[in-house]
Amino acid sequence: MADITRRLGWRHLRGAPTAHVRHHRGTKLLHDGPGLSFWFRALTAALSEVPVDDRELAMTFHARTSDFQDVAVQATVTYRVSDPALAAARLDFSIDPDTGVWRGAPLEQLGTLLTETAQQHALDVLARTTLSAALVDGVAAVRERVAVGLGAEPRLPATGIEVVAVRVVALRPEPEVERALRMPARELIQQEADRATYERRAVAVERERAIAENELDSQIELARREEQLVDQRGTNARREAEEHAAADAVRAGAEAARTVRLADAEAARSVRLARAEAEGAREVGEARAQAQAAWLRVHGEVDVATLHALTGTRLAENLPNIESVTVSPDVLTGLLARFGTGERA
Questions:
Q1: Is the pLDDT of residue 125 over 50?
Q2: Residue 73 bridge partners (DSSP)
Q3: Residue 100, by phi and psi: left (phi above 0), alpha (psi -120 to 50) or beta?
Q4: 43: which of 73, 91, 260, 276 lies 20 to 30 Å off by Cα?
Q5: How many CA atoms, within 13 angstroms, populate the side-chain half-sphere of residue 56?
Q6: In degrees, to the nearest 5, what angle opens at C-alpha 341 toward C-alphas 336 and 345?
């Protein structure tokens, strides 16, 4: 779209480098070319703007194959306006002098022309092709036929249009047919996947069996070594018990001999002690007997008064030491009573 500004009844147009602008005043062509910039009067100017850049036209249409199956064709056509003057003469590319907007829809007309022409050639080639062949080789065949058909279409050069490239994106059947066609391949893929799963499981089972056998062999070897270890421990225990028994026998013999020696020594000492005690008791007895005899002899020779005095002395020596005497009122009353009774008697 051209950029138009207003100044005091005049208009200024500034075009883009990819837009070919044609300015007529009456029958006279004043400006013609891309990227122009000029002043003009709106009442006397006739302006047209033709894009000269490459444009992409995406199209989607349906066709029917020779076996009466519907397919959807997705394609893209790249084109350009090679002759802007001819295109402006054949199509309405005129613009409003105040806004710079196209008065009509020239690009839509070009799109309809290209789409219908491409669809015609695609329908022609697909109508003689089966669905399976179209799905396998239809993209290349349709692209080639559409490119050749657009290149040979006389209306396009007469309109100043040049087709640059043709691309066919996809050929798709109806969803039900597509699912039906996918089913055998999916079944085959599923079978391959199941076979791979079974093989993987078989390999896993075989590996698990090998692992189990290795573990069983390891357990058997471990049990055999444990048995050897138990036997060796029993042998070591018996040997240790024998050594302990021999050591205990030696210790018991030495303890018995020591005990016998101690018993003999104790017996000898006891005998000596008994003899010494017996000798001492005999000597003490003889001394006591002699002292008793002497005591009796002395007492036999002393008179009775001396004996009484000695008796009192011995009695006084054996009396306990009395530091104080406490006389209770009851005892004192009794003694006084007794004294008074004796006096009356």
A1: yes
A2: 61, 171
A3: left
A4: 91
A5: 5
A6: 150
